[in-house]
Structure formats: C-alpha cells, structure tokens
Amino acid sequence: MSPRGCSLIFGVVFLFLSVFSFTNIHAHHCTEGFLSEAKQRNLINITFCKRYIESNGVEIAMYLREKSRRLDIMVGAKFDEKEKTGWLAWGLNPGPEARMVGTQALIGIKKMNGDFHREKYNITSYTKIGCQLLPSSIDFNVSNFSFSYNSYLQYHVIQACIVLPMKYDVSRLNHVWQVGINVGDVGKEPKMHPKGLRNYDSTETINLRTGVHGVLNIIGWGTLLPIGVIIARNFREFPLPCLAWKEYHVSCQATGYIVGSTGWAVGIWLGKASKYYSFPKHGIFGIFIFTLATLQMLFFQFKPRDRDEFRMYRNMFHHVVGYSLLVVSCINILKGINIMHLDYSYWLPAYLGILACLTFIFLLFEILSWFKFLCDKFGLWILCANHKPNHEEPPNSRKEDARIQPTNTPINN
Ligand SMILES: *[C@@H]1O[C@H](CO)[C@@H](O)[C@H](O)[C@H]1NC(C)=O
Ligand SMILES: *[C@@H]1O[C@H](CO)[C@@H](O)[C@H](O)[C@H]1NC(C)=O
Ligand SMILES: *[C@@H]1O[C@H](CO)[C@@H](O)[C@H](O)[C@H]1NC(C)=O
Ligand SMILES: *[C@@H]1O[C@H](CO)[C@@H](O)[C@H](O)[C@H]1NC(C)=O
C-alpha cells in the first residue's frame, strides 16, 4: 500500500474513533451525588453507573464481583412530589432480551400512609395484560434488600445484593426498571405505570465484563510498544546490531498500535454498551494515548528527504512523543486495573511482572551501552582492545549521537 493510502486510512479511522469516543464520554453518567452515595454504601468499586435521563431520570449503580457472581445494585429515582404513593422497580431478565415479561423484579412501594414496602415479583405475561401483580418467589437469592428515602438526593432508593445464577450472562445482562405512581389497596400491588414514552423505553442490555479490553491494551500499549522502543534503541548498532532493526521496530509498533487500538475500541464499545462507566479520566487518557500513537504512525509516513535540520526535529519529536506515550499508557493501564477490581487479583501482579521484565531488559541494554560508550571514549574496558570501529566517523560523537537519536542514521534515511 502506498504511504499516502496508509495515512489516509489511519486518518479516517482516527477521526471516526475520536468522534465516536467523545460523544460517548460525555453522553451518560450518573450524578456525582448518586455515585458517592453508592460508594458509601456497599458498592465500593462501581462497575457500572448510569443515569437514564430519558426514562424518568432513574439512576442505577452496580458492583459486580465476577468470581462470586455477587451483584450489588442501587437504584434511585425521584418520585412525583404531588403524589402520596409511588413505586420503583428494577429487575433482571434471564431471557434472550431485555423486556418486562419474564423479569425477576425487586420493587419498592411507598404506601398511602407513608410506609415503605419492598417485595420480589415474578413478572409474567399476565402482568402485562393487567392482572394483579403480587409478591412471589424469584429465581435468584436476594440479600440486604432495602427500600428507603434518601433526603440528601431526594431519591427513593432500592438497594440489594444478588447472587447471579449461571443463566444470567454478565456480559449480556438484561435489566429492566420502572417508576410508577399508583399502588393497590393492600399496599403490595404496584399498579400499571404511566404509559408515556418515558416509561416504555426502560430496558437495556449491558456488559459488565471488562477483561478483553484490559488484555488487549496491556499487550498492545503495555508490552509491544515498549519492546519496539527497546529494539529501536538497542538493535541499531549496539549491543545487538541487527540490519533489519527498523523493520522490527516498525512491525512491533504497528502490531502494538493495532492491538492497542482494538483494545481501546473495545473499551469504547464497553462504554457504549452500557453507555457510561464512571471513569472519564481513564477514557480521556485512553483518547490521549490513541492520539499520540496515531501521530507516531502517521509520522512514520512523513519523511522530509534532504534537510538535516528537519530530520533532527522530526526525530526529536518522534522520541518525545514515543516516550510520553509509554509513560501515559503505563499510568492508564494501572488506572484501568485499579478501576476493574472485578476480583481480578492477578491483573496487577501480571502487569507489574511485564513491566519489571521490560525495565530489566531496558536497564541491561542501557548498562551495556554505557560500557561501550566509556570504552570508546576512555578505553577503560579490557575488551576494547579488540574493538574496531566499523566506520570513519570519530567514535565519540558518533556514539553520543546514536544514544540520543537512534533513528538518525544514514542506513535508513
Ligand atoms: C415465574 O413465572 C413464570 C410464568 O408463570 C413461571 O414459569 C416461573 O417458574 C416463575 N418463576 C419463579 C421463580 O417462580
Ligand atoms: C439461595 O440460597 C440458598 C441457601 O443459601 C441455596 O440453597 C439456594 O440454592 C440459593 N438459590 C439460588 C437460586 O441461588
Ligand atoms: C448487608 O448490609 C450490612 C450493613 O449495611 C453489611 O454489613 C453486610 O455486609 C451486608 N451483607 C451483604 C451480604 O451484603
Ligand atoms: C475495591 O476497591 C478498593 C480500593 O478502591 C480495593 O482496595 C479493593 O481491593 C477493591 N475490592 C475488590 C473486591 O477488588
């Protein structure tokens, strides 16, 4: 493919993905108040938090512990203050789609006399056609189920802890919610919710699993890119001269770019699938990383031929951006791991292991290079006796230059 074609493709993909991600990051999120309230309760590490502006402003936060399949939920909504009664419902549907019939629901009811009730309901097709809805058993165990009023948020809040049976797929979880006003005489029967538009679109399928995104990003940004840098820095001439270093460097970075961007796209998709994960900083860092990486990839196409000064600036830019990229992606991966805490206790050690390995290799090469440098400059090393410079330039300036500008070499330009 011609360089121009490549650049064009990168450019288009970049533009598309950035627009896509920006529209997502600010699209939906739960309010700060709700988030902090959820964190104060049992949902320390929020997996999901979203406000459904279009359906009565209901806010839902979840914390999933993947290993134990324990799901903590908190659902809040503002009741109509003019009404004496009201109910708030949230449930999961184990069926193939998110819909009312088949939902295993938790419902909190505010009665005429101001009392609060909470019950479990198995919503069937009879409910839909208007039959009485009464408490029943549901197919998961619920603990710490409460319904209360939070005066700070002015929300009525359902909170519960559920152990998800295997038939609920956490990467395709159908959840359904609803707010209503009228309550039956006995006080345990939520009556039909209002039939406005705001009340119909109250279902969603969400993905609470973030593993793939993490793996791809750790491999792409966190492993391949640093390896590519090590190649460029050390395989050009010393300690491991390799004629094809540039091809290796480029293919390593290109692969890293593709894998990392895929991981990033998955991250955006995760955000899209559940509209909002409350991690704007992680998202912004992600965009930043992708932007820098794209710059580097585009830059690879950009080769002013003859002007030495240009080439120097070009290389400086390449290095500054490259190293910043490494630092930022390292920070963001750690951030991401910190966010996930879905019982993935092995993520942090795994990534730290990779990091330690790369640092070790990097330092090893650095030390070797310094030995070589000192040897060339001062003849300190015994082995220097056998070393013959394989070019005409004075070794000192040559080596110094090579250390700072690994790509600035006649071989490839
Ligand atoms: C819920 O209702 C449906 C339809 O009547 C029934 O098949 C199902 O067994 C019920 N689930 C539970 C947990 O009772
Ligand atoms: C609910 O909990 C009980 C006892 O802890 C257990 O025997 C039962 O299998 C659980 N049911 C489900 C659907 O998880
Ligand atoms: C239930 O709530 C209490 C107090 O909020 C908490 O100490 C306990 O750990 C919770 N239990 C479960 C199973 O979430
Ligand atoms: C939840 O987050 C805290 C710190 O934010 C962390 O120490 C803890 O390990 C996390 N819990 C789980 C289950 O990962």
CA radius of gyration: 29 Å
What order do the SSEs take from the amino end to the carboxyl end, as H and E?
HHEEEEEEHEEEHEHHHHHH
Report the helical percentage.
40-55%
Overall morphology: elongated
The strand line-up of the biggest sheet is 1-2-3-8-7
Give the mean pLDDT. 78
Largest sheet: 5 strands, antiparallel
Identify low-pLDDT runs. 1-7, 16-28, 389-413
Give the N-terminus to C-terminus distance in angstroms. Answer: 20 Å
Number of helical elements: 10
Range of strand content = 15-25%
Bound molecules: 2-acetamido-2-deoxy-beta-D-glucopyranose
| SSE-based structural type | alpha+beta
Strand segment tally: 10
Note down, in words, how this protein is organized.
The chain has 413 residues and is an alpha+beta fold. Helices cover 46% and strands 18% of the residues. The chain has 10 helices and 10 strands. It has helices spanning 3-25, 32-40, 125-128, 197-200, 211-234, 245-273, 280-299, 308-340, 347-378, 395-404; strands at 48-52, 58-65, 70-77, 86-93, 104-110, 116-122, 141-150, 155-163, 173-180, 203-206. It has a 5-stranded antiparallel beta sheet, covered by helices on one side. Strand 1 (48-52) and strand 2 form a beta hairpin. Helix 5 runs parallel beside helix 9 (347-378). The longest helix has 33 residues, at 308-340. The chain is elongated and about 95 Å long. The model is unreliable at 1-7, 16-28 and 389-413 (pLDDT under 50). One 2-acetamido-2-deoxy-beta-D-glucopyranose binds next to strand 7. InterPro entries: AIR12_DOMON, Cyt_b561/ferric_Rdtase_TM. Residues 390-413 are annotated as: Disordered. It holds the Pfam family Cytochrom_B561. Residues 162-374 form the Cytochrome b561 domain. Residues 390-403 have a biased composition (Basic and acidic residues).
